[in-house]
Amino acid sequence: VFAISQRADDGYRVLGYFNFPGRVLSACHAKIDGTLRLLAVLHNNLLATVYVPTAQAENPLEPIPDADSRARFRIVDRGAALVMYCEANNAVLVTGRDKLLKEYKLPVDTLEKLEWRKAPAAPIEEVQSHAVGTSCWQESKEFKFFATGGKDGQIILRNVGNFAQMNPPIKAHGVASGGVTALCFSQTRSTVYSAGGDGTVMAWTVGGKPNPPKPVTGDPAIGRALDKMEQVERVPGSQIKLYKQI
Question: How remote is the C-alpha of 143 from its chain's centroid?
């Protein structure tokens, strides 16, 4: 099950949910042909795509109808675990157990039309990824970079026009603590920020564009809002209920 929520003035409201035919390992948004879609990799080696709703479903407790979700699927190689989308060239990328970065065509078949006994179609392109596994990714439209962070502690910057073309990896975070756990390109600076399981956040200059001399200013209102937040208390697993049961 994958729920879709929309930000509102008083928090978030659930628009509806998709009932996928398998456990969701990873998911991401993709804007394709002017419409917002959700891409997901399932535990049974399926790459799925559904249309994201723009309004709340009539009954949020029921899955979004197939006529609205227009769910489509593609069988991919075994061990797929992370799905990514590069908007610059509309590339759907998957990586997993084989440590390869693979580009696949967008899923076009309904679940009933899948031929499970046939081997999956070969990817459009495949290149070597992180030796231990890929954990996160981020695209920079301004600098035409597609970055991946790995459990090996390295950051790989690829040219969005040619994924095989990449700069020497940046050795960022410790391997023993899980490597790179998050990436984010700056909107105003020639910088990519990385976070690691070692508890550090680092900033790396990329793209060859000079950074502004002034420091990044923070919004004081954000700090005040954080101070007002109540602490989240842990509860026993026996007290956790599905929202259908509430």
Answer: 20
